[in-house]
Amino acid sequence: MALGQDPLDALEIPDGTTVEEHDLVTDGDIVVGGQSTVEFGVRGRNVLAGERVTFGGDIEAEGDCRLDVWCDVAGNVLVGDDAYLGERVHIGGRLMVSGDLDIGDDVDIEEGFEANGWIVIRNPVPTLVFYFLVLSQLLSIGENEAADELADALSGDSDEEPLVIPRGSTVSDDAWQVSTPATVGDGCRLHGNLRAETIVVGCDDNVFGSLRARDDIEIGEDTQVHGDVTTRDGTVTIADGAHVRGDISCSALELHDGAEVDGTIRASGDIRLIQPDPDAGDAGGSGGDTSAAADATSDAPPTDAADAEADTETDPATDAETGSTPEDTGSGPTSAAEPDPEAVPDPAGDSAPE
Predict the structure, then answer these.
(1) Counting Cβ atoms within 10 Å, is residue 4 exposed (0-12), middle (13-18) or buried (19+)?
(2) Which segments show compositional bias classed as Low complexity (predicted)?
(3) Is pTM, for the whole model, over 0.90?
(4) Are 270 and 293 members of one domain?
(5) Region 174-186 average pLDDT
(6) pLDDT value, residue 132
(7) Stronger pLDDT, 64 or 1, i.e. the higher one
(8) Residue range of the domain that includes 332
């Protein structure tokens, strides 16, 4: 990764993420970029937040919780393992830690805290810097296996993908607003209007809000969008079984068979209606190939008729070989102009004069 590149370069919502009342719930980790605002409470495995992140509810972490400098939490913080709080972190409720607590200077916890492990008061380094220093130290002393284990843990080597909120984002019950691409997994239930550079929504989702992007928007199968779908310069693709309960405004539209749109469709470019054709898939194609196959089928009877005529024209020769007289009106004059005994030697004919 190049220096200065933000590793949190997209909004990534994993499969099964839901918004329950005032909490954002996922089975995996939650990673929030610096200077972001999350008006929900969050519940996940590990919760990592950059500097100056604001949470509007409680934080519940089954594993570790690390809050960088100047973070603000309106509710309680419940941690299943260890907690790391940077300097000048503010918690409006109570802090409860099952493991160790590493706390910085000028931390304000309004309703007190409780930790079952060690309590260390100091100024923790930023999260990414801390992990980078640990990896560098392990590699410098030759502990490659330990470094690989830590790298695998940081890369999310687990069954669940993390929920990633990029830097400078705003997530609330009204809007999810980011300046990066956004990806929503399968089986999610979200509240709020989604604003991003590009949007990809998975299958079997429920989005209670509108979708707006500058570029392309893709909506997966059996997904319901309770709002409008708008893009400035991109293409909107709606898969089979998807249902948009609002208007669509786009540059181009690809609407699969089985998709439903309740509102008005406005497109400055092309509108394509894509029909499924599993039978024609074996013959090699899409809707155009289906019509070509139909034309080929319609041309088949004349070909059979031509073959029948060819067979009829060859019947006189066959009759000549067997000694019979042709009775076909179309082939009679031809056989008279060219006598069969000269054209085709007939053993039966040679024996007749003898």
Answers:
(1) exposed
(2) 289-305
(3) no
(4) no
(5) 95
(6) 66
(7) 64
(8) 288-351
